[in-house]
Request: fold
Amino acid sequence: MTILNQNLDNQKIKSVEGSMDFESLYTSGVGYEKFLLGLKDGKILASVLPTSNQMVLPARLYDERTFTRLEKTAPVTTPGVLQSYTTLFKNLDGQPLDSPITVGLIGFKGVEGHLVHYVHPNGKKLTIGATVKPKFLPQDQRTGSILDIQWFELV
Reply:
């Protein structure tokens, strides 16, 4: 039984047809903003843990295990490693895509954390463990979004 058919406190619930304008501003937060601004500059930035110099991706404001504030960031310079992938043939509405899209889980040697992003095989066969590198949009088209990386391509 839907909520519109239930009788709560002996009152019939009403519904109104139509639409309501709604404005919202969702910010990325201070830590993640560093990561996004790094992408705008063509760099993948990770936070550096002060106690161990371990890099964590994406950059963030606090270490969730120790609640230590993370001030230092550094660019990830190692190539990516394709750790998993899937190929999509339908969109979110279940409709066929014009061409398949491959999405992969990308890790980086010596860096804790991963990125999920598009993968472009460059005509090569995808394999788990393959080396990948980011393909950034041209500088004048970057906006500080995860989509500033067009895709990861096989090396």
